[in-house]
From TrEMBL:
SMART domains registered for this protein in UniProt: ZnMc
This protein's GO CC annotations: zymogen granule
Required cofactor names: Zn(2+)
GO molecular function (one): metalloendopeptidase activity
UniProt key word Signal: yes
This protein's record includes keyword Glycosyltransferase: no
Protein name: Metalloendopeptidase
Length: 382
């Protein structure tokens, strides 16, 4: 600090500055007394040195904090791992608690009395309301930081931007809801289960926009892309490269594909080396093995189309917004609602004006004698 004080005196050019006068302690600042600054006492010089030292120290700390924030920003805009990589990494060494479910397919929770076969035929869709929207209560446990909670809420909101799905906060009286918790790993049940339905987003590796969307799509009734009923037409599975005991993750399910094509860019598609035991591919696209797949970091157009078709969202409610712009349009739904309200009010005003005009015309057409009678009764007429 003594060196910084001396440098600060030179920087200030021996001119008087405001503030930072902390007394007349001499012991640590004796060196500044010997500087030749005309018209200034040693005591004043000492105070200037201390002021400069404080300013320089503050600037140093500010630059350090700023550099840390820059580092975080740079890392956040770097290439995000694919959702398949994130899920496999988060669940690789998972040790579940006694009350946690068994997982299949990497992150699909199953109960002892159920399996992960298509649930849409047995009534696992969330209920639709008379206004055409699907309201799904959610509760985020208080295990998350403010930043983590913001990522989760952004993932919930992203469904409102592109479909009739509306995730809303839990309210007293709700008898079924999604309970978002930081348990062991990333996982979700497939479709509506009833009661408090856990979606686990562990703070250790699951708090990404892609994983939030992925697990919520499971909760809405969707399975993995690589288990589609028509998978073998688009993906060749290399069974010899799959980890022992993990083969079931690639078993085909009789899925409802909603008339959409196989999607290599689906957020539900795992990457090329998923569950590999020898660092060789477990999946290969056909007929072109060079196609990139399993690299999604958010829902694709086909993911959105399937969601809207499964829940029969109308074109009015399922507003198609490019997902990479959706986080700039958080107020879109509110603005549209206000716009529709204004249109309804204008329509009511026009209707009132029309009825008023009709009444005036009726009075105008009354015979003169009748009009005189109306006048005598004190009734206004044109």
């Amino acid at each position: 600090m003594d060196g910084m004080a001396g440098a600060g005196v030179a920087f200030l050019g021996c001119k008087k500055t405001n503030g930072f006068d902390e007394g007349s302690q001499q012991s640590r600042w004796s060196a500044v007394k010997h500087l030749d600054c005309p018209g200034e006492t040693s005591h004043q010089m000492e105070n200037y040195g201390r002021s400069a030292a404080a300013i320089m120290f503050f600037c140093f700390v500010s630059l350090l904090l700023l550099s840390c924030s820059w580092a975080e920003e740079v890392s956040s805009v770097g290439k995000e791992p694919s959702v398949g990589e994130l899920l496999e990494r988060a669940n690789r060494d998972r040790v579940p608690d006694a009350d946690e479910p068994e997982l299949i397919g990497g992150d699909i929770a199953v109960r002892a009395d159920r399996n992960a076969d298509p649930c849409t035929a047995t009534g696992c869709l969330w209920l639709k309301y008379t206004d055409g929207k699907v309201y799904i209560p959610y509760y985020i446990h208080n295990q998350y930081s403010e930043r983590e909670r913001a990522i989760i809420e952004r993932g919930l909101q992203s469904f409102s931007d592109v479909s009739c799905i509306r995730f809303r906060p839990y309210q007293n009286g709700d008898h079924e809801w999604i309970s978002i918790e930081s348990r062991n790993g990333c996982y979700s049940y497939v479709g509506r289960q009833g009661g408090a339905q856990t979606v686990s987003l562990s703070r250790q590796g699951c708090i990404y926009h892609s994983t939030v969307q992925h697990e919520l799509l499971h909760a809405l009734g969707f399975n993995h892309e690589q288990t589609r009923s028509d998978r073998d037409n688009y993906i060749r599975v290399h069974w010899d490269n799959i980890m022992n005991g993990m083969e079931y993750n690639f078993y085909i399910i009789d899925t409802l594909n909603q008339g959409t094509p196989y999607d290599y860019n689906s957020v539900m598609q795992y990457e090329r080396y998923a569950f590999s035991k020898n660092n060789l591919p477990t999946m290969e696209p056909i007929p072109d093995p060079n196609i990139t797949f399993g690299q999604a970091t958010q829902m694709s157009k086909n993911d959105i189309d399937r969601l809207n078709r499964l829940y029969q969202c109308s074109k009015v409610e399922a507003v198609k917004i490019p997902l990479h712009f959706s986080h700039f349009l958080c107020g879109y739904e509110e603005r549209e609602r206000e716009k529709r309200q204004r249109e309804r009010e204008r329509k009511r005003e026009r209707e009132r004006d029309r009825r008023q005009t009709d009444r005036q015309m009726d009075v105008f057409l009354i015979e003169p004698k009748s009009r005189m009678q109306l006048t005598s009764l004190g009734v206004d007429h044109p």
